[in-house]
Design goal:
Rossmann fold, 6-stranded mixed β-sheet, 8 helices, alpha/beta, 2 domains
Length: about 375
Amino acid sequence: MRLTIHTLMLSAVLACGSGSDGGNGNGDDAGGSGGIDAPVGTGADAAMTTDAAPKPDGIEGCNPENFTLQQAPPPEVMLVIDRSGSMLEPGSTAGVTKWDELEAAVDFVANQFDASIHFGLLMYPTGGECSTGGPQVGVGANNAGAVLYYISGASPAGGTPTAAALVNAASSMTSLGDPMSPKFVILATDGGPNCNYFLDSQPSCSCTYSSSPAYCCTAYPDSCVFGNTCLDDSGTLSVIDDLRTNDGIDTFVIGLEGTAEYVDLLNAMAMSGGRPQAGSTSYYPASSQAQLQSALQAIASSVISCTIDLGQAPQAPNDVRIWIDGRQVPRDPSDGWNYTDPTNTQIDLSGAACDTLRDGTEHVVTATFGCVVN
């Protein structure tokens, strides 16, 4: 058997979900008996090229198969935003409220990742106390404008019915979202959860994490009061765990200014959600607009996958080349690309290549595959 390399260039525009990289260039990779030419053109020009193979050289039987890079569905992320009355308190900048800072941070990040992530929005409560309905914006493509429209028009008031908000967010995502898309919740709150609608038969809620136990909301909606010194800790943790275990929805937790009293609970919530950050706290503390924006960017980037499904194994797995935006990506498991397992049906991107895919913008990904001639 001898190996003849004919190149078939396939391209995919990756704006979200799992991605791959590609590149144009003259760098060398693991080779066979023949060289592989780099794709002609970059960007949109490269995307139009469907056959970069050399002319037949008289060898019969070399028909490169049409391997297609399969882009995974984009991640769906529901922003569950605490709009309780305390969000009107001063933020880190003079003359600016915590709500103003949250609006600015969400504006920046939602627009940055609008092409890569399907966002939704659920602000809670929806009334002046503890009532909480469904999302203001269901998860979907190009939702940054809609998300900011509702945030900018909202006025903080009421308590913090976190458990109910998470239940309603998950219900919307599982019933209306794409069943094939990975799903996540980003919870941003400036206080402990209260207003538990699910404790009607109990005289009081558990207050393990509160320094001054008093009361919490035990009936919805008539008997509901703010209960701001008693936490619905066990109920909220149970909901977050249920979302992950039964609905496949992981939860990221951001603690805004005002949550210092609830560090232990927020850490426990982040751990239950399955997406704790590395460091001294499992949740993401954000006491300023800059810190909140940084936390949102880190979270948004992390939900974009760098795994690509090739659909089937290439005939010549050592003669596959990957490019991102016209720049060749080396085959390197720590900073480049490599197969995920011996079946050679998926590749993982790592290092700078993965970082590129996760920056929120569109990228042109190309690949060439060799064929085996008997």
